[in-house]
Amino acid sequence: MSWDPYAALGVSKSASAVDIRKAYRKLAKELHPDVRPNDDAAAERFKRITAAFNLLSDETQRGRFDRGEIDADGNEQPVFHGGRGFEGFGGFSGARSKGGGAGPGAGSGRVDSFEDLFDGLFSRGGGARGFGAQRGEDVRYRMDVDFLDAVNGGRRRVTMSDGRSLDLAIPAGLKSGQTLRLKGQGMPGANGGPAGDAMVEVTVGNHPVFRREGDDIRMELRISLAEAVEGGKVTVTTPSGPVTLTVPPGTNSGEVLKLRGKGVQTKPTPGDLLVRMIIVLPKKDDPELQEFVRKWSLRKQEITR
């Protein structure tokens, strides 16, 4: 035996399937390459506990390992029975005599190779149960996604439980709490069954400038008093890049201008970017501006608040 999968997971040979799963998940959280990047020792141990879990979570393979028919890497181990040479290579260890007895030592006489084959398949364990194709378990992950990637769509390199790296497509419009499914990227199936899926639950981060409302995005834009009074063109940095926004003359602080199609890039109709104007006065006292306000004929005009 090259190594002990039970020891790798820190469980006893009598551990239940639930105990094995709990042990694997605990170790995987500690050793995952995303948690401990650039740690070769942790990466190797992560691969080892994953291999151990894959073996011990499959009842058929676990049974074969416990009986010594395969080693921890899944390699076949021939079994020697005294006086009859090696049997059981390939998992078919149930020799059967013409007298009808089953199993090693069940009787004497010529061993029929075809009966030996079918005995291994159907007699052990009570029939063909456990030898049918079984779908692998789904594996769940959590992943943080950048705000702009969730708005515009993108790709993200992720590391799977077996150490493989995949490029995950992030669809535009992704929201926190949603789950992405990677078909066939979960635990391997048993006896030729399909692999399970990888289920990636997403948390979208916040952004210092943008705030999402459905498919629309809101932001604030600081403009000068002159731009508010006279109007003009200003550059706005949107989630998809800079654009030019026309500020109408007489724009008030708090007014919202809309940039169509510059919000969340959902298809077929992207959301809008809603830009709230904030008028910013000079930081230092401006005698000229103060003099203008003193002489301004509308300075006492009532304002609806």
What's the structural blueprint in terms of helices and strands?
Elements: H1 5-9, H2 17-31, H3 40-56, H4 59-66, E1 79-81, E2 85-87, H5 113-123, E3 139-145, H6 147-152, E4 154-159, E5 165-170, E6 179-182, E7 198-204, E8 211-213, E9 216-224, H7 225-230, E10 232-238, E11 241-247, E12 256-259, E13 273-280, H8 287-295
Structure description:
Strands 8-9-13-12 form a 4-stranded mixed sheet. Strands 3-7-6 form a 3-stranded mixed sheet. Helices cover 25% and strands 24% of the residues. Helix 2 (17-31) runs antiparallel to helix 3 (40-56). The termini are far apart. It contains 8 helices and 13 strands. Strand 1 and strand 2 (85-87) form a beta hairpin. The model is unreliable at 80-131 (pLDDT under 50). The chain has helices at 5-9, 17-31, 40-56, 59-66, 113-123, 147-152, 225-230, 287-295, and strands spanning 79-81, 85-87, 139-145, 154-159, 165-170, 179-182, 198-204, 211-213, 216-224, 232-238, 241-247, 256-259, 273-280. It has 305 residues and is α+β, with helices and mostly antiparallel strands.
Distance between the termini: 82 Å
Task: Label the structural class.
Answer: alpha+beta
Which strands sit side by side, in order, in the main sheet? Answer: 8-9-13-12
Q: What is the assembly state of the chains in this entry?
A: single chain
**Poorly predicted sequence stretches spanning 5 or more consecutive residues:** 80-131
Please estimate the helix content: 25-40%
Series of H and E elements: HHHHEEHEHEEEEEEHEEEEH
User: How large is the count of helical segments?
Assistant: 8
- Mean pLDDT figure: 80
Strand content: 15-25%
Q: How many strands appear in the DSSP assignment?
A: 13
Radius of gyration: 34 Å
Sheet with most strands: 4 strands, mixed
User: Any idea what the shape is?
Assistant: elongated
